[in-house]
Amino acid sequence: MLDSIDMSLVDWSRGQFALTAMFHWIFVPLTLGLSFIVAFMHTIYVRTGDEEWKRITKFWMKLFGINFAIGVATGIILEFEFGTNWSNYSWFVGDIFGAPLAIEGILAFFLESTFIAVMFFGWNKVSKRFHLTASWLTAFGASLSAVWILVANAWMQHPVGTVFNPDMARNEMINFWDVIFSEVAVNKFLHTIGSSFLLASIFVIGVSAYFLLRKKEVLFAKRSTVIASVFGVMAAIGTIATGDTSARIVAREQPMKFAAMEALYEGQTHAPLVAIGAMRTDTTRFPHPREEFIFKIEIPNALSYMVFLTPSGFIPGISDLVYGNEEHNYMSYEERIERGAVAIQTLKELKKAKERGDQVSYEALREKFSDPIWIDQYYQHFGFGYYKGRELRELIPNVKVNFYSFHVMVILGGHFLIFTMLVLWLSLKNRWGNHKWLLWVAMITLPMPWIASQAGWVLAEMGRQPWVVYELMPNITAVTRLKPAAVQITFWIFLLTFTLLFIAEIRIMLSQIKKGPEGE
Amino acid sequence: MTWGRRLWGIILLKLFIMFAILRLFFFPDLLKRDFDSDEERASYVLEQMTNP
Fold first, then answer.
1. Which of A33-42, A92-101, A311-320, A387-396 is least confident?
2. Which residues of B touch A81 (CB under 8 A)?
3. How far apart, in Å, are the Cα atoms of A68 and each of A30, A63, A278, A361, A503?
4. ipTM, 2 decimals?
5. Pairing between strand A467-469 and A170-173?
6. In whole angstroms, what is the distance from residue A59 CA to residue A71 CA?
7. What is the per-residue pLDDT for B22?
8. Distant-in-sequence, close-in-space partners of A129: CB < 8 Å, separation ≥ 6
9. pTM
10. Do B30 and A167 touch (CB under 8 A)?
């Protein structure tokens, strides 16, 4: 099946979506995290009446506003792409995406956009308490916006709470709560929000370090640093804890992604965790090239322990998943492809029976799509059916990309925890700012959370390839059959537009940071 | 030009590019544009899914 699909179309469409999503994600985490830090600073000002806290709040609110203004609505382009470049996918998941995004539009965006105006323009115009309430509602509204899109993404990673309607070729929601409170969705939200708080904390610490290095606005910088480091330590601990839970969920629900992020080809008990390593591609290996480590440092038993809390837990490798492992109950991909092909053929026959008015055949085939045993045996493997006659390697995600993105994220996460704890400890002893080199470390660390955050999304999305909806719809089926050249044109338009916007963001941010809070 | 004005300029230009250029000329909702009813859209997607 799908022999005729132009893979350059799939690649350009994926590249275009990745570019848009990654650009959008430059702004979102800072908006999410900084909104809470600003609300907290604003609370201190209202409670103490100290004018210095007002200056502090107004300065960070201004940077929040610049980031919000440049980033706002860039995510809408993703929705354009759903309708144009991913129309089959868009239809297939319509109801699942429709409900969360409608709630986002009506509730969260309304809350955020209404109160953000009060927050910015409310100084001396509304009461202090109402103004403060607007700051908090803006922060909660931003996070609430994130909930719904993360719920939709979690469903794509782990489809639950829905049934497939074969007449309409759509998934329909049967349990809203299963969708929004799935373990994947809850953990994804907590991990994303936690990492966004951490990113914003390190941003505030880094910008404050700039003032301390120049010996300007010392009180402002030190107070900002204390608040940010408290937020940062809490967020770092939360992000690491939810990251750990996330790894366990991935190991259970997406074992191929888990094997790829550790470059584990042969499954084993007492599996070690690769703490750090570098690899090269061995193209001589059958049946497809393998990534071989040039060097690695391992922690014995740690991978098994991380997933099962015991070293004797079996972690399947890529080979176990592709070729099957009867002892540990993993069905081979060949078998899953056969079963998926049966499910696709059943859907095809149902469509034909309906078109020719053969009610008896139609009813019998329709019945299968609501039979739990048939669903378990065949429909669960639906997406695999598209790979009949294609190479098995297409079902394996890019191991190098997954390995490096996972390890970059984890290593940076460890650095952030140590760094924020050190800053908090020195701040509480009133010694933060005494060591110039530490201030330079703070400034060098400033862009790193963006790298970690983007790496996390690369892992989440590249690790589940080739699935757009996990094991049900691959990217080759989801993509709209457009001319690759048309997708290339929009890719370059986006790249140009986004680069200009990014330059504008950096320039305006830097000019306002240089001015400092003196004008506030 | 003050930073506030520059920001408003960027916001308006961005929204213009997004909605007046990209949306209208490059990103139509294909299923909405090409079909009149949900049944027709479903039939088209089913065809794509079963006869790729």
1. A92-101
2. 27
3. 9, 9, 38, 56, 15
4. 0.85
5. unpaired
6. 19
7. 79
8. A46
9. 0.92
10. no
Judgement on whether residues A293 and A407 belong to the same structural domain of the protein: no
Average pLDDT of A386-393? Answer: 92
Confidence of residue A54 (pLDDT cuts 50, 70, 90): very high
CA–CA separation, A477 and A473 (whole Å): 6
Å from A127 to nearest chain B CA?
24
Q: Into how many domains does chain A fold? A: 2
One domain for residues A237 and A281? no
CB distance from B35 to chain A under 8 Å? no
Which residues are bridge partners to A298 per DSSP?
Answer: A274
Check CB contact of B9 with chain A, cutoff 8 Å: no
Domain membership of residue A294 as a residue range: 268-315
Contact A203, A191 (CB under 8 A): no
Q: Helix, strand, or coil here: A466?
A: coil
Reported for A291-299, long-range contacts at CB under 8 A and 24+ positions apart, including other chains, are A291/A263, A291/A399, A291/A400, A291/A403, A293/A263, A298/A272, A298/A273, A298/A274, A299/A272, A299/A273, A299/A275
**Which pLDDT belongs to residue A482?**
87
Q: What is the pLDDT of residues A268-302, one digit of tens each?
A: 999 999 999 999 988 777 566 788 999 999 999 99
Is A299:A410 a contact under the CB 8 Å cutoff? no
Q: How many CA atoms lie within 13 A of A53 on its CB side?
A: 16
Helix (H) or strand (E) holding A50: none
Cα diameter, chain B? 58
Put simply, whether A84 touches B (Cβ < 8 Å) is: yes
Is residue A90 domain-shared with residue A192, that is, in the same domain?
A: yes
Inside any domain, residue A218: yes
Mean pLDDT within A310-328: 94
